[in-house]
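In response to reviewer comment 3 from the previous cycle, which asked for concrete evidence that the modeling workflow produces usable outputs, we include below a single protein chain processed end to end. The sequence was submitted unchanged, and the resulting structure tokens are shown without manual editing.
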Amino acid sequence: MISCILNIVWLFSWHFEFLTLSALIIFLLLATLISIYLRLDIGKIRIRLREKIGFHLPFSVYLGWVTIASIANVAVTLVSVNWDGCGISAEAWAIIIISIALMITILVVVIRKDLAYGLVVIWALLGISVKQSSIQEIVVATQGSAIILAVTLAITLLLPRLKH
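The workflow returned the following structure tokens.
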């Protein structure tokens, strides 16, 4: 229920451009979803397919989306307050953030074997690549990260099957 309330508050704060508030709210939402994810033991326990589809899959997708949305929310908020990037170019910051998202996703995929979470991040990276198609450095970073994640997903999911 808390995640639903936070999502509603985030939607309104984002829609009405209370960007600093929306950034705070989305991080509270992210923390709530991480808590749910961990409590459900997603990727750590064996469950029936019906439960996996009905409970684990939706929370994996939702957590993946909110992870990426949190990053985007902070970026938009920083731009809105004319943050100077501490002397680092916007492109360099984008590549740093893409790299952090990549590392987080690799950890989730390897530790939790979470295909859905990984696919959401790949989808987001490809979307960023299309949206930022005029900035070659970001295109290379996002597409390269998407490829790395796809390979990581394939290895993580296929390797245990090859051992048997």
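DSSP finds six helices and no strands in the chain. We consider this sufficient to address the reviewer's concern, and the full set will be provided in the supplementary archive.
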